[in-house]
Amino acid sequence: MQQPVNGTGSVALTVALLGNPNTGKSTLFTALAGIPTRVGNYPGVTVEEKIGRFSHRGRSIDLIDLPGTYSLSPQGPDEQVAVDVVHGRQPGVPRPDAIVMVVDATNLERNLFLATQATDLGLPLVVALTLTDIANRRGIHIDSSELGRRLGCPVIPIATPARQGLSELRDAILTAQTPAPLLLEDTAPAADRSPEARDAIRRYALVERLLSGTINRPTEARGLPEDQIDRLLTHRLWGTLAFVAVMLVLFSSIFWLAPPLMDLISGGMDLVSAWVGALLPPGAIRELVVDGVLAGIGGVVVFVPQIALLFLLVAALEGCGYLARAAYLMDRLLVGVGLSGKSFIPLLSSFACAIPGIMAARTIENRRDRLLTILVAPLMSCSARLPVYLLLCGAFVPNITVGFSWLRLPALVLLGMYALGVIVAAAVAFFLSQTFFRGPAQPFVMELPGWRWPQPAVVLERAREAVWSFLTNAGTLIVAMSVVIWALSTYPRNEAAIATDLAARRAAVMSRLNDPATSATDHGELAAELATFDDPADHEAARRGAIQRQSFLGRAGRFIEPVVRPLGWDWRIGCAAIASFPAREVVLGTLAVLYDLPAGEEEGTALERRLRAARWDGTNRPVFTLPVALSIMVFFALCAQCASTLVVIARETGSWIWPMVTFTYMTLLAWIGAFAIYQFGTWMRW
Amino acid sequence: MSVACLTLDDAHVGDTVRVGDVAGEDRLAIRLLEMGLTPGALVRVLGRAPFGDPVELEVRGYRLSIRRAEAARVTLEAI
Questions:
Q1: Residue B13 at interface with chain A, using a CB cutoff of 8 Å
Q2: CA angle, A370 then A456 then A227, to 5°
Q3: What is the DSSP letter of A586?
Q4: Looking at beta carbons, which residues of chain A come within 8 Å of B31?
Q5: Residues with Cβ within 8 Å of residue A451, at least 6 apart in sequence
Q6: Which of A41, A44, A252, A650 has the greatest number of C-beta atoms within 10 Å?
Q7: Residue of chain A minimizing CA distance to B22
Q8: Whole-angstrom distance between the N-terminal and C-terminal Cα of chain B?
Q9: Are A261 and A301 in contact (CB under 8 A)?
Q10: CATH 2.30.30.90, domain B8-77, yes or no
Q11: Cβ(A20)–Cβ(A110) under 8 Å?
Q12: Chain A contact for B22, CB < 8 A?
């Protein structure tokens, strides 16, 4: 044999953790190396690279956690990376000095299939036999020393919760040697097959020979409580009910638990802004720091509670084995539109916010399914769209009952907006899967791992890593973009133009006030609007409106007016829509500014009244009618008005092509949808 | 009765069957073999998902779920 791995001097040893998915590999990584020193993506692919470092008996060891793989004949980018790393073909990663092969003791046959391939690598090898405690409970007993003798490498039993076997494993890594290749024998059924098929068939025959006499397991699998639970949770009726319950808990926790935390963060950011604002002299620098940079940072940090909560829950579900069951239960429903069962949780999460939803798509191993899921996830109506729906439904949809006394039209329209997103997402996914993503059927072959308690350390690490990668990779770019948007909506600032704008607005309000045709309610609203021009306390609101109307953004709004006219919009709505492209939640604030509402009144009835009183410039025709309100809502339901989502798509897919595709198709669909509903509504005389 | 033409897709929930072969040499066929559905392996059909697809199997001591279209690639032989 070759020399043991510790004979190479004082440089760090590189050791790769190879194993099937769901074998306790992440748990073992955390137990050996703790928090990873390096987490990122392998260059060119969106496969997670995770490297940790520990030292043992004076040697420091770099531990590479490879993506889980079922075979060294790789299928898909994850398995490809695992194979490339062990062969030393992955750029930027040194060829490992040794392999730790993680073998699940409860699932020995299929795990040893990969282990026998690992013995052919020509690298020093140690087998870590994990989950031995669960195997023992199932009545499975393994003669690990005999198995090690047959494999030609040490087999170290590990019971991770009790951390038994870890120091033996560390010792074994330092003294690991390259095993002799195992011989595959010919078997009859393999004779006329392709080399890959022949290898697989012969290898399982080899595994059966290795296990004969080294494993003692009950002939009839011993029934454990978790088997009963499994029957229940994958049952057609009870399994579906349990699934609905689990998803309700998951969904409501990000929808209801996260907002108080997000309010806390916004409140904290407001305090910081006020404090910094007080330190700086008034002027451009203060506005840049407070309204540009700090507002941008606040806009990033506010997503952290949702991402952290979702990843804690998803990692816990993954750790206990439920994630695969959920995909199993939902697969049929989603495969019809070109997605797969694993798309369900990312899409459901996107109803709260597309950002954690898109990040949760990491749990989909299949690259095509993952990309399709990411592309349609932003169509789910996220919580930032809800205030827009609520305002417009409340103000412009007649509050009449529909059929039943409890069912009112505004509620039905609100439901319709959520349904619209789902239906369009299904249609887009189906269309893409039949056209650009057409290809051979993607195998679904998926293991349903055994039930076990999630490891808190692994769950926390997943959430921490998700939050960290969002803040460092997407966050910095989002802050930069929000500064640019702030500048566009603030400059150029021409005091003369602002004064002209203010005077023109005041004159328009005055002329309508003096018009005998103006109704009494409008009269009140106009009087309030006039006050914003004349009352020094409210003057700042009118000034903010004038600045924004004169800015690049306001000019853009006027410039695109011909494009939004067919949607029934005036240039101010167009302007608000443009301003909402970085983040749709700003639309209400922007409308409030554009319609000269004093600061702090953008929520609720004040804005509603102001919008109702809005008229086309120089006429007495209301801007906001039911068809216009519907057209705005449809536009917001379908449009990709969220720069953060686009940045996260770029980061998760490793390419700027996909956010561009998402942005283009969603904006086109939004315009077409808004056009259709406005024209139809006008034609129906709604 | 000849069972040579039967596939895993035809097996009922609760049945234990023996794999005859996996048809084809494509990625899917190789993956099914690699997951342990090799000639002679015993498979128990544990259940079907709420919409009838996919199916849940027990093979070589673990749980595997595959779609029915994939199960149709696995021919059975008499036990």
A1: no
A2: 75
A3: G
A4: 70-71, 75, 443, 445
A5: A226, A229, A230, A320, A321
A6: A650
A7: A197
A8: 13
A9: no
A10: yes
A11: yes
A12: yes
Taking the Cβ of residue B9 and every Cβ of chain A, the question of whether any pair is shorter than 8 Å is answered with no
Chain A residue numbers with beta carbons less than 8 Å from the beta carbon of B61 are 106-109, 217, 221
Closest-CA distance of chain B to residue A448, Å: 5
A vs B: CB pairs below 8 A:
128
Q: Where are the domains of chain B?
A: 8-77
Q: Distance of CA A93 to CAs A17, A81, A85, A98, A448, Å?
A: 14, 11, 7, 14, 32
Identify which of A108, A445, A447 has the shortest CB distance to residue B70.
A445
pTM value is 0.80
Kind of pairing between the strands at A98-104 and A38-41: unpaired
Q: Do A446 and B65 touch (CB under 8 A)?
A: yes
Segment A250-300, tens digit of pLDDT = 777 777 788 888 889 888 988 998 899 889 888 888 888 888 888 888 878
Cis preceding linkage at B54, omega within 30: yes
What ipTM was estimated for this complex?
0.93
Cβ-Cβ contacts under 8 Å, B47 against chain A: 231, 234-236
d(Cα A360, Cα A466) in Å, to the nearest integer? 9
H-run or E-run covering A54: strand A48-56
DSSP states along A429-476: HHHHHHTTT--SPPP--EEEPPP-PPPHHHHHHHHHHHHHHIIIIIIH
